[in-house]
Structures are given as C-alpha cells and as structure tokens.
Amino acid sequence: xxxxxxxxxxxxxxxxxxxxxxxxxxxxxxxxxxxxxxxxxxxxxxxxxxxxxxxxxxxxxxxxxxxxxxxxxxxxxxxxxxxxxxxxxxxxxxxxxxxxxxxxxxxxxxxxxxxxxxxxxxxxxxxxxxxxxxxxxxxxxxxxxxxxxxxxxxxxxxxxxxxxxxxxxxxxxxxxxxxxxxxxxxxxxxxxxxxxxxxxxxxxxxxxxxxxxxxxxxxxxxxxxxxxxxxxxxxxxxxxxxxxxxxxxxxxxxxx
Length: 256
Fold this sequence. Notes:
Radius of gyration: 19 Å
Number of strands: 10
Shape: globular
CATH architecture of the largest domain: Sandwich
Helix content: 25-40%
Structural class: alpha+beta
Distance between the termini: 44 Å
Low-confidence stretches: 1-10, 15-29
C-alpha cells in the first residue's frame, strides 16, 4: 500500500529503506535505532537493547513530503508508524464534507493505533516528515513476545484519551482567545518535553489547520493571534513563527 513512487500527492513516501545495520555495526543496537533522537519518547523505549534488534528487523524508514497522505480513514490498517521527525496532522471528515483536525503528532508519537481493522482517521504530513513504518502483523507478534511493549501501548492509548478529553474542553467550553492561547501553550510544553526551544518556535501547521483543530474560522484564528500580539503576550513573524513574550499572561489567557 505504501511502496515508494514519484506520486507525492497520493501520499507515497519519497524513500523507504530497511533499518538493518551495515556490516560491522553494533548488533545489539542497530542503526538507525542507536542514533534515534526520539527513541526515549517512543514505544521503543519499553524495549531493552537486544530486543531492539528484533524490532529493527521489521522496521523500514520512509519520508513523506508536505501534504502527502500517510493513511486514509476507512482503509485497512496494514502498517503502524512511529514519527521520527516532523509534524503529522490527524483528521476526520464529517458527513457534510467538513474536516475536523483531531490532533498534531510530533517526533516520538505513535500513529495508527486502532481497535478495528480499518483506520479510524486520516493522517497527512505537515512539512517534510520522517517515519519508522512497522507492518501491523509483525508488530502484533512482537507485542506477544515482549509484554512490556504492550504496556507502553496501553500508556499511549491512555494519553490519547486524555488528549481527546482536552480537545472536547477546547471545543465546548473555551472562547476563541482561550483556545488559541491553550494551543500555543500545548505546543510549547510538547516541544519542551522533546528538549527543543519552547519560548520561540515555528508553527508547522497553517492557520486553516489550527482553525480546523480549534473549531474556529481562519479569520478568527488570525484575529486572535493579532490580539495576543497587541497585548504583548506573543510576538509574531509572518504566519509561521511565534515567540512567547509573557508566559504567565498566556497561561491566564488560556484559562476557561
């Protein structure tokens, strides 16, 4: 389903390569696992060094260009993905054709976890994205072999539930100002957890994507960012860069 081709707009990866170690490499911690910057944040962190060898045997790494579809809602779940680098937009299409973005995933996040045999949502690359791709059946066999991996997957599922509850609060109870402030704070905290700068950072997603996530129009999103800038809470450089000038005021603005 995800063989490398030249058709980027249909969601095909630009490159797919096996992760097996070259001759002479450390057999206990194969490349690229040994140098992976997000391994401690991902499901892989549940495995010991020798167990990583078994995981590396089924993993292939692939890259997607901006706007490429990684997985489509309703299609069979053939592969699971661990995000190595970049941002992935997760969304569902409503019955009237509108799109509801349900989340933005970053390095270390897991993509494709589902209780059914079909994808419950679609996923699209926001900017260039690098992923580790795992065949579903092979991964399920690893879970049977390594119970600690199953425990980590349960933790991931719990985190997704908490994120869904936060999203319900955002959509149901908060004003536009509170929604945008909460969104910026959430991004900053997630970046900090990954050891990345959290006071000034680029927004990988567009204003339209943010609006589809927060349940706001693009005009309201842009107007609210401008208000936060005028209040001295944020500094903006174009549409893709934000700097938090007053974190305490931003936290106050985010409170429902």
